[in-house]
């Protein structure tokens, strides 16, 4: 397969390390119509700038960078607003088949690029608004996780929910995003962090990130929100749904205390509608969503890299498997069966 840089505002990036995220898995096996193939998946990665187009002003050869599925152009109304981290110029979630310019070809045929990044490739081309420069001392096989899952979960707690010191939190779903949310609650000073998952094997890992209590809904004969309400004298202050399940989203909302409880939707799904009784919101609860943890990407990711380098956030502990890209199918099987948190695949020595 060849990657070519014919785009004036695009750097060519050599991918050094890339991780398998559930969004890649979801696109591959759960959602997308087959006409949106062939495609290069992958979006959680880090690399080194190989070369730049004539219109690139922010990067030079040799820069260490992280690709961003959520762009930050700094010019659109969303980028200029402090109320949002959206960007009107981000790549569409589902690639547009009729795009006039393709960044990949294989055997003479055009290949789509997932989320404008396509990091399951030794090289990729991205618009400079979808790349951010990072500390040259940062280990790429660790900080690659910050281009999606860890920022998503951590920021959902810190930026979106705005967890307060001394509060009680519940995190539903203990994949990488959920564990990052646990870490965010802990760093924000939560007194009690309740980890909820149907796989009890994940509880020890959640403890590493700061969880204080652990619940497997299968161990109870009543709805999980009732269990949480009993445990917390009326409900949690903050709940974060990180499983992408509409039923769990409702449970997370209903587990919040009336009057001020905040429930954040973090897990991604677009397959079903959500439902709740209006009285849940009338009673004073807030239901909100979070994309990429509320971080403005080009600004936030380097800050998170610095936090990691300063030992203020964890990354190494999320990595359960180190592989090479030719083992991608093994990584997919591990994720399919819930046997990994993050599989990081490397291309070359850093």
Write up this protein.
With 350 residues, the protein is of the alpha/beta class. It folds into 2 domains: 2-149 and 294-346, Quinone Oxidoreductase, Chain A, domain 1 (Alpha-Beta Complex), CATH 3.90.180; 162-289, 3-Layer(aba) Sandwich (Rossmann fold), CATH 3.40.50. The longest helix has 13 residues, at 149-161. 27% of the residues lie in helices and 22% in strands. It is built from 11 helices and 17 strands. Helix 4 (149-161) packs across helix 5 (176-187). The model is unreliable at 2-6 (pLDDT under 50). Strand 13 (238-241), helix 8 (246-254) and strand 14 form a beta-alpha-beta unit. The strands form 3 sheets. Strands 2, 4, 5, 8, 9, 16 and 17 form a 7-stranded mixed sheet that branches. Strands 12-11-10-13-14-15 form a 6-stranded parallel sheet, with helices on both faces. A 4-stranded mixed sheet has the order 1-6-7-3, with no helix packed on it.
- Show unreliable segments: 2-6
- Quick one: biggest sheet? 7 strands, mixed
Number of alpha- plus pi-helical segments: 11
CATH class of the largest domain: Alpha Beta
CATH topology of the largest domain: Quinone Oxidoreductase, Chain A, domain 1
Strand segment tally:
17
SS-based structural class? Answer: alpha/beta
Tally of distinct domains: 2
**Beta strand %:** 15-25%
SSE arrangement, N to C: EEHEEEHEEEEHHEHEHEHEHEHEHEHE
Question: What's the average pLDDT?
Answer: 90
How far is the N terminus from the C terminus?
23 Å
Domain Alcohol dehydrogenase-like N-terminal: 12-134
GO molecular function: S-(hydroxymethyl)glutathione dehydrogenase [NAD(P)+] activity; zinc ion binding
Family: Belongs to the zinc-containing alcohol dehydrogenase family.
InterPro entries: ADH-like_C, ADH-like_N, ADH_Zn_CS, GroES-like_sf, NAD(P)-bd_dom_sf
